[in-house]
Design goal:
3-stranded antiparallel beta sheet
C-alpha cells in the first residue's frame, strides 16, 4: 500500500482475501498508525494477544491480535514487508 498525508492512496491485496478487501472495502485498508492504534485498543480491551515486533528502524514489522483465545476466526496477523518511508 501507499500512504500519503495519513491516507491510503493505493493498496494491492496479496492473496484472495486481501484482494477482496481492497476491491470491496478500499476505505477500510488501514495505515500503520491505524494498525498500531488497533493494537493499543486491543490491549485496553484486554485481548488475549496484542503484540508487535519492530524492525531495526522502529517501524512495525509484524502485528498479531487475538481478542479471545477461545474464539475461532477473531485473530489478525499483519506482516509489514518492503517498508519504505516517505522520501525514501
Amino acid at each position: 500500500m501507499t500512504v500519503r498525508d495519513g491516507k491510503v492512496v493505493k493498496a494491492v491485496g496479496l492473496d484472495d482475501s486481501g484482494r477482496r478487501v481492497v476491491r470491496q472495502l478500499p476505505d477500510e485498508v488501514p495505515t500503520l498508525g491505524e494498525l498500531l492504534g488497533e493494537m493499543v485498543q486491543a490491549r485496553r480491551d484486554e485481548a488475549d494477544t496484542a503484540e508487535a515486533e519492530y524492525a531495526a528502524d522502529g517501524h512495525p514489522a509484524r502485528i498479531l491480535l487475538d481478542w479471545d483465545k477461545s474464539a475461532i476466526d477473531d485473530e489478525a496477523l499483519y506482516v509489514i514487508s518492503d517498508y519504505e518511508p516517505a522520501g525514501g
